[in-house]
Amino acid sequence: MATVKWNQDVNAGTDWMADINILNDDGTPRDLTDHTFESLIKRHYKSVNSTEIAVTIVDASVGNIQLRLTSTQTSALKSGKYLYDLESTRTADGIKERILQGVLTIRPEITIT
Prior knowledge:
The protein has 113 residues and is mainly beta.
């Protein structure tokens, strides 16, 4: 499966969520049973600092997952462009696959409460 490039704009100080349906190459829902996921944000590829994007498997049988950042996390990120990706690991054999990658642009917060 090819990695999907998906750029996102996120407003600092807000909760962000993306609902994603992962499909097989033929367009059918991908069964994610026995998969784990990890997703990180970094300023650039070699950056040692990162922010974890929470990944929840909503319905493994139809390939539905959710990515989430809290308002605390988005407030802590300086405005600008970051790189992110989403990787899956098949627990049966340890095979890793990059599912999604792109640029996450943090838009500055005006109203701070």
